[in-house]
């Protein structure tokens, strides 16, 4: 029973803060609401018994990615005044479009049949099982992602330099 | 009682669909490139949540490993993307995407 | 169930109170040690030997006028110190303060919760800690605050990387990231040494990064008075300033506890099971041993503060990115190599 209420609460927080990200005028508030949304998603991960993922999610998203966003917004000194606005018509069209997408997704979900889930390992989210899968079945993608990081790092440094000789 | 027994999987699918749609709304609704970028992150997270839910309900670690990779790609993407944004800001003195319709400087 | 809740609540309150008291008396200790190093006497007016000085400071903090800048963002301005204080207190949850105590046949562990991702939890909390400084500095709407905040957060992020890498070597060795298990592996007997013996380089890197993470001298650039007025807390006054300063001392206490737990055996002390003492006595002595280690590290923080001058900003970044990170990667490779060789040749 308790878990149900926790789920409701987390779902409410994540949907509300996600909406506020889109609606807020001030970019810094957007970033802070997005951080709140990420925390509620980390809460969902804990509910799903994926503690490792929850911790990594907080470290990577809240601890690194959002700090970068906050950095850029603070350094560029973006605020409510400098915020560009779309015309009312375009906003209306955007709302209609995404509303239709939601209707389609929910409709698909309604039409589908509920699968009977095969009972697997309940501890799939523990580090031991994750590590086994990661380093046995997905070793090549893991190594390739390290090259991706290297490329991204070099690219970011090169772009960030003021003058390239 | 665990989450898997207490909450039907459909609820998680619904939640991540809603989050994904909010991300789409953000991309269409705003003109500030940084906010659009953040909406893309939101969409990625909706997918992450869905993958984790599937993985937990099936008891299969592979889904969570995918989430791990998505996080890695997102981090790399943000580093490069924000660097590009800063270069754009230096050139146009704004992060408005409507200034970027010329395909040249 | 109810007794479990009561016992956990009491434990949480006790640990919270202990962190606050230790942080309070660290301020007193800091001033006394500074005075000793500079051949002065230090605070000696409030109570015998000035022992009531922290209380007097606290009262002063509460009584001061509270100023919120007119053009600042009020909600975020208040949120900043709250986050700083919250994250400072959160790490104490996973540290094993002692072994279990047996009362009436029931075992009561002195760790609030033994989650199996203890070290990762620690890093998660650490990475949230940046926001307290950043939000506070931005919301003040002052260029010195903003500069201080940006300096502080880039410093904290840079050193977090080296800190994480130095811990990876330790985790490769112990094979677990639960702090309780790491502590138990260092228990005495059979020539079982503390981790610092096996990971001296990792320990040094971790120590330096801990100094940088807590914004202590020689890494106190975010608040260096000569360049930035007061850094990110220039605009703060009264108890909100107190929260920032207090959070720094709590961070110092907690990071000392983490160092003691990870590298210096936590609540273990030499020959603990050879003296023939009863279980509860060993536990209590273990808590005393842990606190002795913690106080030593707090003293080390202060010792360094009054000995080493401040880094220049480019020196700080060079140290972090060009020395500590390559060094810790080398440490990881070496640890991996030795672990493999040990498995192969059984030594």
Helix content of chain B: over 70%
* Secondary-structure class of chain B: mainly alpha
Query: If you compute it from the alpha carbons, what radius of gyration of chain A comes out, rounded to the nearest whole angstrom?
Result: 21 Å
CATH topology of chain B: Helix Hairpins
Rounded to the nearest angstrom, the distance between the terminal CA atoms of chain B is 60 Å
Main beta sheet of chain A: strand number and arrangement? none
CATH architecture assignment of the largest domain in chain A: Up-down Bundle
CATH superfamily of the largest domain in chain A: NADH-ubiquinone/plastoquinone oxidoreductase chain 6, subunit NuoJ
Write down the overall mean pLDDT of chain A: 85
Count of separate DSSP helical elements of chain A: 6
How many individual β-strands of chain B? 0
H-E order of chain B: HHHH
pLDDT < 50 runs, ≥5 residues of chain B: none
Assess the beta-strand content of chain A as a share of residues.
under 5%
The CATH class of the largest domain in chain A is: Mainly Alpha
Tell me the total number of β-strands of chain A: 0
Gross morphology of chain A: globular
Summary, kept brief:
The complex is a heterotrimer of chains A (165), B (105) and C (347). Chain B has 4 helices and no strands.
Topology of helices and strands:
The complex is a heterotrimer of chains A (165), B (105) and C (347).
Chain A: H1 2-23, H2 27-47, H3 51-76, H4 88-111, H5 127-136, H6 139-160
Helix pairs in contact in A: 1-2, 2-3
Chain B: H1 3-6, H2 9-29, H3 33-58, H4 62-92
Helix pairs in contact in B: 2-3, 3-4
Chain C: H1 2-37, H2 53-63, H3 74-90, E1 101-103, E2 106-108, H4 118-139, H5 143-174, H6 179-185, H7 195-198, H8 200-213, H9 225-228, H10 238-263, H11 279-305, H12 313-345
Antiparallel strand pairs in C: 1-2
Helix pairs in contact in C: 1-10, 1-11, 2-10, 3-4, 3-10, 4-5, 5-8, 5-12, 8-10, 8-12, 10-11
What tags apply to this protein structure?
heterotrimer, B: Helix Hairpins, 78% helix, elongated, C: 347 residues, mainly alpha, 2 domains, 2 strands, 2% strand
């Amino acid at each position: 029973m308790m878990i149900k209420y926790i789920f409701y609460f987390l779902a409410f927080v994540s949907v509300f803060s996600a909406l506020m990200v889109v609606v807020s005028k001030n970019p810094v508030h957007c970033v802070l609401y997005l951080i709140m949304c990420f925390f509620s998603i980390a809460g969902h991960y804990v509910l799903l018994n994926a503690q490792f993922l929850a911790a990594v999610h907080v470290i990577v998203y809240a601890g690194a990615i959002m700090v970068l966003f906050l950095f850029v917004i603070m350094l560029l000194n973006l605020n409510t005044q400098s915020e560009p606005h779309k015309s009312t018509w375009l906003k209306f069209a955007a709302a209609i479009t995404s509303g239709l997408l939601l209707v389609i997704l929910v409709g698909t979900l309604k039409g589908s049949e509920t699968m009977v889930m095969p009972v697997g390992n309940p501890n799939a989210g523990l580090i031991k099982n994750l590590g086994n899968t990661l380093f046995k079945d997905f070793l090549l993608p893991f190594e390739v992602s390290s090259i991706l990081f290297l490329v991204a790092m070099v690219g970011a440094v090169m772009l960030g330099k003021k003058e390239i000789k | 009682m665990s989450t898997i027994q207490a909450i039907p999987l459909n609820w998680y699918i619904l939640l991540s669909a809603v989050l994904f749609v909010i991300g789409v709304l953000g991309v269409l609704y705003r003109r500030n490139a940084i906010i659009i970028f953040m909406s893309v992150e939101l969409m990625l997270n909706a997918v992450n949540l869905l993958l984790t839910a599937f993985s937990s309900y099936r008891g299969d670690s592979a889904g969570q490993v995918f989430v791990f990779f998505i996080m890695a790609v997102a981090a790399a993407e943000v580093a490069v993307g924000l660097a590009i944004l800063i270069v754009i800001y230096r050139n146009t003195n704004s992060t408005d995407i409507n200034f970027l319709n010329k395909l040249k400087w | 169930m109810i007794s479990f809740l009561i016992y956990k609540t009491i434990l949480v309150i006790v640990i919270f109170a202990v962190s606050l008291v230790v942080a309070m008396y660290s301020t007193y200790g800091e001033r006394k040690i500074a005075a000793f190093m500079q051949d002065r006497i230090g605070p000696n007016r409030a109570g015998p030997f000035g022992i009531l000085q922290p209380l007097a400071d606290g009262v002063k903090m509460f009584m001061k006028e509270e100023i919120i800048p007119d053009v600042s963002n009020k909600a975020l301005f208040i949120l900043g110190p709250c986050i700083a204080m919250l994250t400072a207190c959160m790490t104490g949850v996973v540290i094993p303060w002692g072994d279990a105590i047996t009362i009436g046949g029931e075992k009561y562990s002195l760790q609030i919760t033994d989650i199996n991702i203890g070290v990762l939890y620690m890093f998660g909390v650490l990475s949230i800690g940046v926001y307290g400084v950043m939000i506070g500095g931005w919301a003040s709407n002052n260029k010195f605050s903003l500069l201080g905040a940006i300096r502080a957060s880039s410093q904290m992020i840079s050193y977090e990387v080296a800190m994480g890498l130095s811990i990876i070597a330790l985790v490769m060795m112990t094979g677990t990231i639960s702090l309780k298990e790491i502590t138990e592996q260092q228990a005495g007997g059979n020539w079982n040494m503390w981790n610092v013996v096996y990971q001296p380089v990792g320990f040094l890197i971790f120590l330096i990064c801990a100094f940088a993470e807590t914004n202590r001298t020689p890494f106190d650039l975010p608040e260096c008075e000569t360049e930035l007025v007061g850094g990110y807390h220039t605009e703060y006054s009264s108890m909100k300033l107190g929260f920032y300063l207090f959070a720094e001392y709590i961070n110092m206490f907690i990071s000392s506890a983490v160092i003691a737990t990870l590298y210096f055996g936590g609540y273990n002390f030499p020959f603990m099971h050879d003296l023939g003492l009863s279980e509860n006595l060993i536990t209590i002595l273990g808590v005393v041993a842990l606190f002795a280690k913690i106080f030593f590290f707090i003293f080390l923080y202060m010792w360094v503060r009054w000995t080493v001058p401040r880094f220049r900003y480019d020196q700080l970044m060079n140290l972090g990115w060009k020395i500590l990170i390559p060094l810790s990667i080398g440490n990881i490779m070496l640890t991996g190599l030795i672990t493999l060789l040990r498995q192969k040749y059984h030594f």
